[in-house]
Specification:
CATH topology: Rossmann fold
Number of strands: 7
CATH class: Alpha Beta
Distance between the termini: 46 Å
Strand content: 15-25%
Radius of gyration: 18 Å
Number of helices: 11
Order of helices and strands: HHHEHEHEHEHEHHHEHE
Length: 276
């Protein structure tokens, strides 16, 4: 793998920051979080999680959202009903393997072609070394703001749909977020979705506060003040729950640990139900 190491372009830091956060969690708290695949990915890419530790807010946010989404997705996958998980903007996410996803679940990662190619290379290289299986996992190289990927996901009548959008929507213009949600509602009636949102304040200043994001040229374009805004966009969207990553390990948030109200307002994980 070392001789054919994937080349990370443009989006490299936005791919590597959450990967490094999960590797750091594995090293610091192995009793509560174990993700050897993320640590292996980072090693194979020639990176060390310590290089990212100074980007404290990004690391704290990535760790916290991972904790919440792992917990809620694990609960959502319990039970016998067949499920299709559609992981949008999946990046180098290893949740399918980390959760020990049950048989009968089809897990589909969707991301840009370059990202999917990197991930496929990493997974192929890890299959022999770590004994991981791709039995229920697949990937689609596509722009999530388009429509072609929706046509590639066939479903049986008894399969429910669970959509995940982690570390994605804040980088899209609001009109594209609205369009994506409308397409999901239309294509997946009765489905559920977990999405990560940032507040408008974060959208304004995060790219300036985070040197790593700023270096990529990536812009934070959309922020959400209240989850109920989503229900105003489309009457078939219902908000079931929301959680604040700022409640997770507040001591890791630097000076924000002294401002709990502000800390909790910066990020949300929101659970939606799409009406039939």
């Amino acid at each position: 793998m070392e001789e054919n190491r994937p080349i990370l372009r443009g989006v490299s830091e936005t791919l590597l920051i959450p990967l490094a956060a999960r590797a750091l969690m594995t090293r610091r708290d192995p009793e509560n979080f174990v993700d050897p695949l993320s640590a292996k990915f980072l090693q194979m890419l020639g990176e060390e999680s310590s290089r990212f530790e100074s980007d404290r807010w990004n690391m704290a946010g990535a760790c916290a959202r991972t904790t919440i989404l792992d917990r809620e997705v694990r609960k959502a996958l319990q039970g016998a009903q067949p499920t299709v998980v559609v992981n949008l903007g999946a990046g180098l996410c290893s949740r399918y393997w980390r959760l020990g996803t049950p048989a009968g679940v089809r897990w589909i990662d969707v991301d840009l072609p370059d990202v999917i190619e990197i991930k496929r290379q990493l997974i192929r290289a890890c299959q022999a070394d770590m004994g991981i299986s791709q039995a229920g996992w697949s990937s689609i190289p596509a722009d999530v703001t388009g429509t072609a990927w929706l046509e590639e996901i066939a479903r049986t009548a008894d399969e429910r749909v669970l959509v995940i959008a982690e570390g994605l929507l804040m980088y899209l213009p609001e009109l594209e977020v609205k369009g994506l949600l409308d397409r999901l509602v239309t294509n997946y009636p009765g489905g559920r979705m977990y999405l990560e949102t940032w507040s408008p304040l974060v959208s304004c200043v995060w790219g300036y506060l985070s040197r790593r994001i700023r270096k990529t040229g990536t812009r934070v374009r959309w922020g959400l003040r209240r989850p109920t805004t989503l229900t105003n966009w489309n009457s078939k969207i219902h908000v079931l729950n929301s959680w604040s990553p700022g409640d997770i390990n507040p001591q890791e948030w630097g000076l924000l640990r002294f401002t709990p109200r502000l800390r909790r307002s910066l990020m949300k994980i929101i659970e939606l139900q799409f009406a039939t």
